[in-house]
Amino acid sequence: MHTKIPSEKKSHFSGHETFPLRQLWLKKAYNAVSSFQKNGPKDSKGLFNVDGSIVNFGVGKNMVSAIRHWALACGIIAYDDAAGYKATALGDIIFGENGLDPYQEHPTTAWLIHWNLASNGDRSTTWTWLFNRVIEPKLDSEHLLTSLQNYARGINHKVASATLKRDLECCLRCYVPKVADDSPEEISDSVLGELGLIQQAGRGTFEFKRGAKPSLNDSLFAYCLIKFWDNYSPSTKTLTFEAIAHEYGSPGKVFKLDETSVAERVQALNEVTKGQLVWSDTAGMRQVIRTPKKINTDKLLSNAYDR
After folding, report:
1. 185 found inside a domain
2. Which domain holds residue 258?
3. In this predicted structure, what is the pLDDT of residue 2?
4. What is the dihedral of CA 122, 125, 131, 136, to 10 degrees?
5. Tell me, what's the pLDDT at 7?
6. What CA–CA distances, in Å, run from 208 to 138, 169, 205?
7. 269 in a domain, yes or no?
8. How far apart are the C-alpha atoms of 132 and 60, rounded to whole Å?
9. I need a labelling partner for 253 at 20 to 30 A (CA). Which of 17, 44, 121, 209 fits?
10. How many Cα atoms within 13 Å fall on the side-chain side of residue 12?
11. Is the model's pLDDT at 1 over the cut of 70?
12. Helix (H) or strand (E) holding 282
């Protein structure tokens, strides 16, 4: 069984206006939407389009569009054709009153943002493609662009090469912000650069940093594993080590963990989930067993913030 590959309808290669995600942008979007909701059941469709939004966000028009895009892509806000924008449950948990990380200071938030973009994001196709489909040890910019063009054609998504090039560049700059033409502000404001998932190997070349990720909390790994499981094979009670480490959209793939690191994480699941996920390595079968009781993923997420 395999996870769903993004369809033409879901694929998305633009919206960020070439601006990598910056600190506090998600908080700004959440505050704007949640404040609007509190003021009454008005239509919020134009919340990011009216002239006042430039004043409210304190940035230019293109950045307002970028803030909107990132908040949608990261699952902090959602858009409904009938009612407009609304804060999501995840947005409330992180940025709401008594939220887990209202000022986006905890490393778990950065890992969670990365997960939402790269695991199977509806508005971040290049991110899901890069972290799940690209297996070469060295990432050459020109070769990556050609591969991305081929991928877009393969899923029947008609998109200009220039659009793909901008999307790919923005994706890489999210993780490797420190390049020659970046301003100090952009470098210091990087959200995903702190994760150390991609490093620059030379001019126009990059490489994944595979292996242990010390700042990735075990509870967040368990949270993401359940999300992956529900998408990959929701009706099964067991999940193989190979799927967790190597399948499209898996924690092993998305977080660029090597097999040793994945093994350490799954062995900790019993303690992390209070016995609701159990690691088993008997008779040559390496797998995680899931108990019938529904796991409280909100509690796991809270634990990932050391609460």
Report:
1. no
2. 218-304
3. 47
4. 160
5. 41
6. 8, 15, 11
7. yes
8. 34
9. 17
10. 17
11. no
12. strand 277-282
Q: How far apart are CA 187 and CA 193, in angstroms?
A: 8
Task: Give start and end residues of each alpha helix (H) in the chain.
Answer: 25-38, 52-57, 61-73, 89-95, 107-118, 125-133, 141-154, 161-175, 184-188, 218-232, 241-246, 251-254, 259-267, 269-272, 297-304
- Closest C-alpha to 148, from 129, 176, 169: 129
Which tokens sit at 28?
């700004």
Say which range, 77-86, 179-188, 245-254, has the weakest mean pLDDT.
179-188
110: left (phi over 0), alpha (psi -120 to 50) or beta: alpha
Integer Rg of the chain from CA: 20
CA 217 to chain CA mean position, Å:
15
**Confidence check: pLDDT of 37 > 60:** yes
Residue 244 forms part of a structural domain: yes
CA distance 106 to 110: 7
The tokens 């913030």 sit on which residue? 305
The β-bridge partners of 199 are 207
Let me know if residue 274 belongs to a domain: yes
Tokens of 258: 């090597």
- Tell me how far apart the alpha carbons of residues 279 and 238 are, in angstroms, rounded to a whole number: 10
DSSP per-residue codes, 103-138: TS-SHHHHHHHHHHHHTT-TT-HHHHHHHHH---SE
Judge whether residue 213 has pLDDT over 80. Answer: yes
251 closest CA partner among 305, 304, 190, 178: 304
Strand order across the 238-240 sheet: 238-240, 285-290, 277-282
pTM, entire model: 0.91
Is residue 216 within 8 Å of residue 255, measured between CB atoms?
yes
Q: How many domains does the chain have?
A: 1
CATH of the domain at 286: 1.10.10
C-alpha pair distances (Å), 201 with each of 146, 205, 256:
19, 5, 17
